[in-house]
Amino acid sequence: MVSTLPIVLAALSAGVWGTGDFSGGKASQRAQPLAVALVSQLLGLPVLLICVVLFAGSGPTAGDLGYGAIAGVAGFVGILLLYRGLSRGAMSVFAPVSAVTAAVVPLVVGLVAQKMPSTAALVGAVLAILAIALVSMSGGRTGKVTPQLIGLALATGAMFGIFFAVLGLAGTSNGLWPMVGVRMGSVGVGLIAAAGTRTSLRLPRGTWRWTATAGVFDIVANMLYVLATERGQLSIVAPIAALYPVSTVLLALAVDRERVRPIQLAGLGVAATALVLVAA
Fold this sequence. Notes:
mainly alpha
């Protein structure tokens, strides 16, 4: 029997993450993606402070901050690889490969590091991964699929998978201190990347609202995910949290009036089935 609360928290984190990704994508249409990613991280710091105060726990440990920093570095590198991969086209291949890899890594880590979940919950987690693949499939391919592109997609997914796995295992009774480490790692790598590429952090007018939304929602999603992993098994919680493409697709449908392909609709149905199974 799987507790419902961590599943609800993980599902909420997926919804918030997807909304943040959508907002970051909107801002990146008019500004440098690296600048959007880094500035959004900085704008989320006040919300991080509030979250840590509300769930302070007994104080930070070296493990909390260290593991959080590793997760933050992996997550930011994943973002940079994602932007690079999507710029090469063939999104209908790159997106699902990277998204599925991101969900498989913490699933495997959770199965090895923690006890085996129930059969129904495990089937639900696998269905969640299938749903991620289906929902992530975009329209026609616009670029050539090469071994290098597949390798880049796998590397991207691995970085996000490491983020999910390390942050999930770092969740302790000490509250949300691992999130401080996450932001230390991501902002540090972001500043190095911006300095190395001489990327200006100035954002055009009209992008600040989207960038701020991305930063705030990322922090809230992190908080919900850490709280979920404190209360549930990583092998179940992580694949549910990785369903964030679902909310991104729904927002693209509602806000941008994009057409949703039948295979993506099927993915939404599989995602719903997965949630029912893991909560059963």
